[in-house]
């Protein structure tokens, strides 16, 4: 990858041997590997030690305002914002930290926001088998703000509702009202 980055710098009209760029191919390569590290995450290993039996919890669990950073697959530019994830337990709960970890595992790839949203929901549904899962992501796409159509404040919201969140309007309504005071709206 380092050689490719060096070639890219040349194509851009830069001098890869100048002081500031000398280690750039190495840095970019490390950085890109981190930003796409989600391809190598084994989701089952990630969550399996943190699934707990709990017959008493049957109310909605929500983790909201999870920072997410991803790369759009069309331009390889960042899109970033907040993810809100909820589930309705059915005899099992998941370690809370695993929810942001699942968000990271699917964010750190080349993505479109819609697919990222469904992958997170499908993953939680598959490993936890709850009565329902809801995921909402609000994000700003740099490919729409620093280039292209150049709109600075246009957030994109996507959602994926499974189980009760899809079939039961009051469950969906409760989730949406609980995330309505989310960080993005407060700032
Ligand atoms: N649906 C969806 N589209 C996205 C996402 N990220 C970027 N895009 C869009 O992907 C499209 C790619 O369109 P093209 O016309 O092939 O690319 P382009 O000429 O660079 O388009 P502009 O961005 O309009 O300049 C653009 O409309 C982007 O806004 C995403 O997460 N979801
Ligand atoms: Zn893009």
Automatic annotation (TrEMBL):
Give the record's keywords alphabetically: GTP-binding, Hydrolase, Metal-binding, Nucleotide-binding, One-carbon metabolism, Zinc
Q: Does the keyword Nuclease apply?
A: no
Which reaction(s) are listed as its catalytic activity? GTP + H2O = 7,8-dihydroneopterin 3'-triphosphate + formate + H(+)
Question: Where does this protein hold Zn(2+)?
Answer: 72, 75, 143
Pathways involved? Cofactor biosynthesis; 7,8-dihydroneopterin triphosphate biosynthesis; 7,8-dihydroneopterin triphosphate from GTP: step 1/1
Reading the lineage from the top rank, the first entry is: Bacteria
Q: Does the keyword Nucleotide-binding apply?
A: yes
Q: Which InterPro entries match?
A: GTP-CH-I_C/QueF, GTP-CH-I_N, GTP_CycHdrlase_I, GTP_CycHdrlase_I_CS, GTP_CycHdrlase_I_dom
Q: Which GO terms describe its molecular function?
A: GTP binding; GTP cyclohydrolase I activity; zinc ion binding
Q: What is its EC number?
A: 3.5.4.16
An annotated GO BP: tetrahydrobiopterin biosynthetic process
Into which family does the record put it? Belongs to the GTP cyclohydrolase I family.
Whom does it interact with, and what assembly results? Homopolymer.
Its recorded name reads GTP cyclohydrolase 1
Gene behind the chain: folE
């Amino acid at each position: 990858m380092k050689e490719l980055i060096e070639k890219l710098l040349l194509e851009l009209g830069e001098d890869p041997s100048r002081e500031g760029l000398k280690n750039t191919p190495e840095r970019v390569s490390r950085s890109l590997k981190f930003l796409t590290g989600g391809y190598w995450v084994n989701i089952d290993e990630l969550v399996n030690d943190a699934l707990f039996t709990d017959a008493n919890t049957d109310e909605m669990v929500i983790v909201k305002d999870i920072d997410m950073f991803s790369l759009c697959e069309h331009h390889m530019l960042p899109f970033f914002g907040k993810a809100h994830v909820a589930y309705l337990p059915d005899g099992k709960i998941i370690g809370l930290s695993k929810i942001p970890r699942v968000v990271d595992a699917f964010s750190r790839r080349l993505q479109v926001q819609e697919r990222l949203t469904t992958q997170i929901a499908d993953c939680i549904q598959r490993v936890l088998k709850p009565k329902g899962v809801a995921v909402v992501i609000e994000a700003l796409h740099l490919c729409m703000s620093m280039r292209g159509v150049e709109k600075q404040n246009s957030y994109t919201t996507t959602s994926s509702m499974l189980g009760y969140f899809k079939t039961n309007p009051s469950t969906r309504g409760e989730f949406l009202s609980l995330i309505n005071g989310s960080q993005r709206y407060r700032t």
